[in-house]
Description:
The protein is of the alpha/beta class.
Amino acid sequence: MTRPVDALFAPFRIGSLSLPNRLVMAPMGRLQTDNNLPRPTYPEYFRKRAAGGVGLLIGEAVAVDHAVACSSDKHAFFHGDPALQAWKDVVDAVHGAGGAFMPQLWHGGLLRGPNRPGAFPNEHLESMGPSGWAVPLVHPQPIGSPIEAEGPLGIAMTERDIADVVASFARAAADAVAIGADGIEIHAAHGYLIDQFLWPRMNRRTDGYGGSIANRVRFAAEIVSACRAAVPSNFPIFFRYSQWKQQDYGARPAATPAELEQFLAPLVDAGVDLFDCSTRRFWEPAFAGSDLSVAGWTRKLSGRPTMAVGSVGLDKASWDTANAHSVSSADAASLDPVIERLERGEYDLVGLGRMLIPNPDWPQLIRSGATDRIRPYSNANLAEFP
């Protein structure tokens, strides 16, 4: 790493939220819950990373109160007094360490999987998606059962079902305010329910929620709008979308900048304050003919701040080097390309995931120059909690 790190530690303000730096703990599914409730170790897990210098911490995906939102007792609820109290304990611990916290609101949709008696809450109910059509997963998941083949899996959502899910997200947003959270993130990425509406391979509807980009993004925009109405006007709403799905790493929400602009505009109008642009490798160009990342294009086209995420700081990322964009793993670990893009205004925040598991004090180590104390990430670190 040769560039100064000052840009990473510049303050940032969005709505009612003031951050001391640009470093965000990206949402990571740790699945350390018991009967859908965060364990007592959760507050300490997040507190350690806030104390280590992370400005904003976004929690793992938490299920809204819709009956078929989640697929396992390992997914945390964000509804009901016990769950909300557990998350309030997290918020209070993070605030006590000088950080800010947001829950990531989520619905699994058809990735909930087929009915498996006793495997998940409300297992007797059919899973729902835009068309009841599922695409197989790339690899078996750590929970549940992989979808074996592309085809019908659950039921297609009626307009009443859609309205019920929208209302569930709005109630969760209001609950986030009630427990003192600093904002919310809406999870519309990685092949889960909202993303299933955005993706033509799973959205085969012929009504106002399918077909054109404007129709496919309508469900997401209605969720954002309902959440915006349920929270104070300056309460930040982040929106995570992804260039990839768990079922298809090459999937894209839009094939051209013009399509991406069509995708983003309704979400901006609905009230998104910041886009969390999930990619597997933050530096890869979103479209041919430009080196702008998806976070860069999103910022340019939407006029909203963005967050870049994807293999930041890793010594070795899980990628196909033949497709890497002139950035080696050593370069990625050095942070020079992250800082360069941040300095030129390509994005506003930097999301860190896996590196914060073995290094809860990663920001402090970077700022002080003690990079020799940074522990490399390995999958064995996933057993570390808190």
